[in-house]
Design goal:
alpha/beta; six-stranded antiparallel sheet; aspartate kinase activity; ACT_Aspartokinase; transferase; globular; eight-stranded mixed sheet; ATP-binding
Length: 499
């Protein structure tokens, strides 16, 4: 028996690694399922490593990362000690989950959690009182969320009899490696992560999704989802067989299954489709993740609550398998919290300097341009605030932190004031973008017409249209209040009836 176990262990060590990435909701609500998935992977002789995000709460607004950011904002306010209550809440939440069969493992984890939170409080106490949190300090504060998650998962695996090792990647970027965010930089980080993993030997590495401070701040440089990128870099560095991103849905669907009951699971999608869906509102995967992994490492989206489901595979499509005229797009998605900004200029907008100044102003106030149309004297832009990307998207109930909403409003007002120097400006708020995504949409005869007809026949007004900027998407702006109805109308007309 011992010889058989040793043989299996040798086979597992020699096999290609499989990277398992778990999000904050899975860590917070379904940790026992994570342990079972790890045991199942090991029983199949897979050589695994795990990357995790910071624990989420009942809603994203209550997640560890959001609370850490709130604590940082409180700490820099004059005469404020509000950050201490936030840290205390984080401490007690994580201590309450540290309950295992093995008392030694439980006590060690509780000591580690207390040490992390004590160090966090000292860091927050030391912050200078100023308007903004210094980026380097914000990065250190953020790292605590992933550290606590990885420490917890390491202890959980050990309590289930799995030899595991916690890996803190907050110092993985070498001091002499100047972050330039080009491929060479990411390749160096991937190699550094793989070296850390190899040092774990036979133990299962449990990595923090946070992988070090970056100039200007990790969130501002990469946005939320950096833990997906970390998993991709680990997969690349170890030449993994596959990167599995575990969520609470069974993969990518033709539409959000929580909003469209007839949505169908997609067995596979092209990476370009995955990136386009992510850009236009679907939480598929961080686009940098796809860029790093493919074409050599496939990415599979799987369901932590249904591990037997094959999920959705993200891998380059074979040109030979593409239909010359696909009968329908791959998916339909909606992007919320869009504002349309109309600038009526007193001069022709063909002036390149004019366009450059408009874009520069919007970017300076953290406003991203999603769609764009113009004529000689008029330019319309569908924009969204980068704040939800940095601070965290709204929860399922549509509520968002009041301070973040106020900051977004102020940013928009400042942008309008500066844009007014170039002409009269009007703003249409509470809008959404509905997008069809699929390879070769340009060659799909009548698809755009069917989209606009479906909306028009159901009295859903179109504010803006974008077709041609991308070969794989058609988008239009509609009122936010119509977004859910539009999603179902379009899916019924272009997907359900064509299946």
């Amino acid at each position: 028996m011992a010889a058989q176990v040793e043989h299996q262990e040798q086979h597992r060590r020699a096999s290609q690694r499989v990277l398992l990435k778990f999000g904050g909701t899975s860590v917070g609500k379904f940790s026992q399922e994570i342990a079972r998935i790890a045991l199942s992977s090991l029983s199949q002789n897979h050589n695994i490593a795990i990357v995790c995000s910071a624990r989420s709460g009942k809603s994203k607004a209550e997640g560890t990362t959001n609370r850490l950011l709130k604590a940082a904002r409180e700490a820099v306010k004059p005469n404020s000690t509000g950050h201490r209550a936030i840290v205390s809440g984080i401490l007690h939440e994580h201590l309450n989950t540290a309950k295992f069969k093995n008392p030694e493992i439980e006590e060690r984890l509780k000591r580690d959690i207390s040490a992390e939170c004590n160090a966090l409080e000292k860091l927050l106490d030391s912050l200078p009182k100023r308007e903004d949190v210094p980026p380097e300090a914000e990065d250190k504060i953020l790292s605590v969320g992933e550290k606590l998650s990885a420490q917890y998962l390491t202890a959980l695996l050990e309590d289930h009899g799995i030899r595991a090792q916690y890996l803190d990647l907050s110092d993985v970027i070498e001091p002499d490696l100047a972050p330039s965010f080009n491929q060479e930089f990411y390749r160096e980080v991937a190699h550094a992560i793989s070296r850390r993993i190899e040092l774990c030997g036979d133990k299962v590495p449990v990595l923090t999704g946070y992988f070090g401070p970056l100039p200007g701040g990790l969130l501002k440089q990469l946005g939320r989802g950096y833990s997906d990128l970390c998993a991709a870099l680990a997969a690349v560095g170890t030449k993994a067989k596959e990167l599995q991103v575990w969520k609470e849905v069974s993969g990518v669907y033709t539409a959000d299954p929580s909003k469209v009951p007839t949505a169908k699971l997609l067995s596979s999608i092209d990476p370009r489709e995955a990136n386009e869906l992510t850009f236009y509102g679907s939480e598929v995967i961080h686009h940098f993740t796809v860029e790093q992994c493919l074409p050599s490492i496939p990415i599979r989206i799987k369901n932590v609550l249904a591990p037997q489901s094959p999920g959705t595979l993200i891998t380059p499509s074979s040109q030979a398998n593409l239909q010359s005229h696909p009968k329908r797009p791959t998916a339909v998605t909606v992007k919320h919290q869009i504002t349309v900004v109309n600038v009526h200029s007193h001069r022709k907008v063909e002036d390149a300097d004019f366009l450059a100044q408009i874009c520069k102003i919007l970017a300076s106030w953290s406003l991203n341009i999603d769609l764009f149309e113009k004529n000689q004297f008029h330019i319309s832009l569908a924009v969204h605030s980068k704040m939800p990307i940095i601070k965290g998207p709204e929860d399922r109930g549509g509520e968002q932190d009041a301070e973040d909403l106020l900051n977004q409003h102020k940013d928009l007002q400042h942008a309008i004031e500066e844009l007014s120097e170039y002409g009269s400006v009007d703003v249409v708020k509470n809008m959404a973008i509905i997008s069809l995504v699929g390879l070769q949409l340009k060659r799909s005869i009548g698809i755009a017409g069917r989209l606009f007809t479906a909306l028009g026949d159901n009295n859903i007004n179109i504010e803006m249209i974008s077709q041609g900027a991308s070969e794989i998407s058609i988008s239009c702006v509609i009122a936010e209040r119509e977004a859910l109805r539009a999603l179902n109308v379009v899916h019924t007309d272009l997907f359900t009836f064509l299946d």
